[in-house]
Design brief:
By secondary structure, the chain is of the alpha+beta class. It is 37% helix and 37% strand. It contains 6 helices and 8 strands, in the order βαββααββαββααβ. InterPro entries: Dimeric_a/b-barrel (IPR011008).
């Protein structure tokens, strides 16, 4: 499985209107493209950052959809008051769901970069060291790890039942994150806490 992420810097005043268009118009249109396996949308209302993720059954399906999604992406940008977007393509390496994300769920995303040769080691570390710790945290819903092997980049996502559960996990997450970065010789590029607006990614368990 593969995913494409589109990150935009939205006008905070336009986020609600933009969400409605993405959910009601963009999501159904993307879902109709051959090979699509769903979509999710995360937002940070304070900063205006939004991340839309589309899942694909194969790398070929993802690449073949590139032109088809351009007008949809442009419409989403306009509806959110954004002037452009940053697009990345990832391989799905790990997916684990404890239970479905309820209304009000939030997620923490962590981006790391390092030696491309350590990609498989990063996957093993996530499965054996990170995921078991996440599962112990109160309010944990699900987790995933996506990788860009060529660039040596990974992004891990941990979803929680509520903003309160997410915030309560911060200290423990910080310790895990730093230990993993040290072990892999990786750099922590960014950390973002976001509201899960909707998550309809039909990606199988991969843990």
């Amino acid at each position: 499985m593969f995913v494409r992420t589109t990150e935009v810097q939205a006008d905070p005043a336009k986020i609600d209107d933009g969400i409605a268009i993405v959910r009601d118009d963009i999501f159904p249109a993307v879902s109709g493209i051959d090979g699509c396996a769903g979509m999710s949308l995360l937002v940070n209302r304070g900063s205006g950052r939004c991340i839309a993720t589309t899942a694909w059954h194969s790398e070929d399906a993802m690449r073949q959809s590139a032109e088809s999604v351009v007008p949809l992406r442009n419409r989403a940008e306009r509806s959110l008051g954004a002037t452009g977007s940053e697009v990345h393509q990832w391989e799905v390496a790990v997916v684990h769901r404890d239970h479905a994300t309820p209304e009000g769920a939030c997620a923490r995303l962590t981006w790391l970069s390092g030696d491309p040769e350590t990609a498989d080691r990063a996957i093993d570390t996530y499965k054996l060291a990170v995921l078991p710790r996440l599962q112990e945290m109160a309010g944990f819903c699900s987790s995933s790890l996506m990788i860009d092997r060529d660039a040596g980049r990974v992004v891990g996502t941990a979803a929680f039942d509520s903003r309160e559960a997410l915030e309560a996990s911060r200290d423990a997450a910080q310790g895990i994150r730093q230990r993993v970065a040290d072990e892999l010789g990786a750099t922590i590029d960014n950390i973002e806490e976001m509201e899960i607006v909707f998550a309809h990614l039909h990606v199988p368990e991969m843990a």
